[in-house]
Amino acid sequence: MFMPKLLNALSRALAVVFVAALICDYFITDISFWWVVGPGLSSGIVGAATARFRRPEPATDKAAAAAAPAEPRTPVEVDPPVTGRWYALNSPATKTPSHGTHAYGQTYAIDLVADPEDTPRPAFGWWPLARRSTAFPAFGQPVLAVADATVVHAGDRLRDHTFTRNSVPALLLILIEGQFREIAGPGRLLGNHLVLDLGNGTYAMYAHLQRGSLTVRAGDRVRAGQEIARCGNTGNSTEPHVHFQLMDRPDVLAARGVPFTWRGVGVPASRQHFVVGEPAVSAAN
Fold first, then answer.
1. What region holds the M23ase beta-sheet core domain (predicted)?
2. Helix and strand element counts for the chain (H, E)
């Protein structure tokens, strides 16, 4: 997997140069036409080359396999990864791919933010520009194993963002920041994350977890409903939330998304509240 990772990083680096050249040309001084077009074209060419190195499904065209998911599988039924009252965003029940891309196995991914009735989640808007991560009830909430499984990957060394990016102006920051995170690799996009092997070729991935909160490590066996980490605000994250997805292999660079359904919940649509067990209580209390 070294070659696709290298090409992916090169493609993102060229994309950053392209954006920087556009900004420089528009706001600072005129620059050569080729300094703008060259990196943009090169990024596209390298991106296409990356697709040829991705691991395809059997008997499929390599480029097509990288661009789109395999034929839809029957949704895998698992337990919910959280408990309490939550709010769904970027849900596959509303659209697929839910995050606008099949990359990193995200076809059926979902984002979850805690929104307990006694401690409502701060609203998105123009002001304040940023709030502390601790102002959000999701921060520090338990994250649970969705099935009996084996831990494949566990990492929680990255620090949580002190401030969130949950305002309109702050979105500009994360759009630029996201490009640099992609250059650094999936780990910087996902932040602290866990991958569980559920068996039968299905893996669960949890992203943006709180620093130092993991209670398991690679090789451990976990039980459904067991607390395995806490919700954080790491990686490419606008606010504390749980990013959850199922995929067909543990490496997100080669993985394809797998549809899921949660027992007793189903798949909540985007901007829909759902409740699992007892209502969540703000970790700050």
1. 185-248
2. 5, 13
